[in-house]
Amino acid sequence: MTEKKVEYIELIYDLIFVYIIGRNNSLIEHVSPAGFVEMETYITYILATLVVLTIWYHSTLLINRYGKNDVGQHICLFVNMYLLYFMADSTSVHWQHFYVRYNLAWALILLNLSLHYFLCLHKITLEKRSSKTENQELRLERTAEEEQIRHSIVSLLLQALIAAAGIPGYFLTGLPLSLLAIPAGLMLSLSGRGRGHSSNVPVDFMHLTERVMLYIVFTFGEMVIAISGYFQSDFQEGITVNTIYFSLCAFLIVAGLFLSYGFVYNRILDREKRANETGYMFLHIFMIIALNNLSTALEFMREDAVAAVPKNVFLVASFLMYYLALFLMWIYAKSRQKADAIFLIRLIIGSTVFTVLMAHFYTNGTISVAISVIYIYAMFALIHLFWRSRIRGGKQAGAASAGNE
Length: 405
Prior knowledge:
It is a single chain. By secondary structure, the protein is mainly alpha-helical. The protein has 13 helices and no strands. It folds into two domains: 1-202, no CATH class; 204-405, no CATH class.
């Protein structure tokens, strides 16, 4: 099967999500008088992130399955970009003041996607009717596509209805009922899979993994911006040893995290397999949230106003969440790169030692950041050594098989 290439319009579309990542992260940069982020603010951040990721998810699947890089696709994405600006501008700790604008933009985005799906359905139906020489296999494939598109239209319209109905619902009850669109969309997606729609119309997994990888790269871009504060120094003091130490450690942390993801993506992941797109996207939601949390956690490490215990717990939890999502990618590994018990035990031991050391030195930022750097590159070393051992084992097995012949 020919690989579906990521089009430039998709990259332009993703730029709006770079802006939204920054807006969402700004929600958890404010520290309360108690010395950390308030729980209500953090929940707002999580929900805002999930809303944006579901929009990106629906857009990506639409382009992955039915994208033709035509005028209709360009219009659909540019309209969504325009509406996403309103959602980004409405992302605030005081979300109540922007609730109508946010939900109206959200509902219109979902309606726009459902309209584009309807146009795809109309095109497929016309092609099916006009073709007289279609074989039975191709006709069944088109029927499956029609069924899958209808299910997507119903799902998007229902989510749009919930988002729109949440506006009067908020004024009547005081509750953000529009957020019910998130679990509703998830349940409809799972119900569609259970009826076999997604299995009959598979995604182009190579295209999907590349699109997700690019979103991860944009998230790392936000981390690069976040650690810029470590390179700042007072004009009179100049560059101090302390500035060099913490800026170097922060840079090594971001670089090490990216190296691990890039290595798994390039060497471990089987991008040619027929895979469950929902599961792959779901684990990357955790990874994106973990990376966003790490961006904020690294900024907190420089702030004396942030209490030592919560900011260290936040940092450690974010690291562990990132690596958990990363190692779950082994579900989609190449056949020769499947993880074994020994590899998993080593990862668990390394993470446990890291957690214990961070808990012991939580009051010493100098030691804590050094432990973080060592942990990240130890994880990368374990991944690299595991890959090399499997490659070596494969070569030895091939040589032995050739010798027997």
